[in-house]
Amino acid sequence: MKKSVILVALLAPLVFSLCTKDPSGLPEITMNAVYDDTPYAIEYGRFAEPDMNDNPLTIEGVKLGRMLFYEPQLSKDNSISCGSCHIQQDGFSDPAQFSAGVDGSLGKRQAMPIFNMLWHTNEFFWDGRAHLLRDQSLLPIQDELEMKETLENVVVKLSATSEYPAQFMRAFGDEEITSERMSLAMEQFMNSIISNQSKYDKFLDGTLTLTESEERGRVLYFAEYNPGFPEQSGADCAHCHGGNNFDNNRYMNNGLDADGDQDDKGRELATGNASDRAKFKVPSLRNVAITAPYMHDGRFQTLEEVVDHYDHGIVISETVDPALAYSAQTGLQLTAQDKTDLINFLKTLTDEAMIADERFSDPFK
Asked: How does pLDDT run across 33-74, given as a tens digit for each residue?
């Protein structure tokens, strides 16, 4: 009996070292981890098939990226993750005006939503300073206002765990952990977050109908501003927020501030061109009803404020978009009912399926 107890005691550390628990809660033997390049299937809906040839999505790559997206060890004090500021139920945005980093430091811009990233082809962040999504994924880790960590330290921390070397093996073919591989995996996960199941999508599919107010808002949304024919004039939203993703892959000055009040130079900081001053990436309006606050600095708390801005609040400056400057001559002249209907249409762009999809949720909970 005593020998059996001693044997169990000696074997226990070995068994513990071989067994771990993956994010799904299932026990695994890390020594048995093998490379698996099984493709990860996504449904594009009416979106065009994107080009992913240099980083195709695999089941294990997306799984690793999901783990890293929600991994607080990416931050200096192991307190925050990417998912801390890009929250699923909030459309992968942050309800705070400025996200809190390590030690409570605040960022300078509102956290952009993360979905349908496969169809962003004009760089990332509000100013486009990251060329590819994989480049974007690493910058918050090193930002002094965000995670305040070094990539070298993150690699050391992840390498000391039992689960990450095994998952890097499954995703990349060996256990080596590098920042480049981290970025590729996080890019894969973020590219897997697709939003194309809103009420409006189902309306286009013919499976749902819009209410009278939503339909009237839809017409206003897509109708152009026409001061010569007020009865036919619309809100002209599709000029900047069109296509399947309700954006235009451009950087624009949307008339928030006069030249002397533009504290944030926007796209100019990335390009060095004065013609890009106060221009910011045009975001998708999908899920806009759940991604408040709005604008690059989160200055507007409600959709009503946003609509009021475009209706009669455009500020003319040197780089303001010409179409907005044109509509500012009279304002959009929207009635109270127009605004209600327009906002009701915008609410049909909310994708309840995406915000409830367990594939995008925190795997550690």
From this structure: 999 999 999 999 999 999 888 999 999 999 999 999 999 999
* pLDDT tens profile 337-359: 999 999 999 999 999 999 999 99
CA-wise closest residue to 349 among 190, 254, 241: 241
Residue 257 and residue 280 in one domain: yes
Round to whole Å and give the CA distance between 94 and 142: 19
Count Cβ atoms below 10 Å from residue 178 Cβ, excluding itself.
Answer: 12
CATH (domain of 305): 1.10.760.10
Q: What pTM value is reported for the model?
A: 0.90
CA dist 7 and 5 (Å) reads 5
Within this chain, do residues 111 and 230 fall inside the same structural domain, yes or no?
A: no
H or E, element range at 281: strand 280-281
Measured distance CA(89)–CA(357) in Å, rounded: 10
- Give the DSSP letter string of 29-49: EGGG-----PBPP---TTSPP
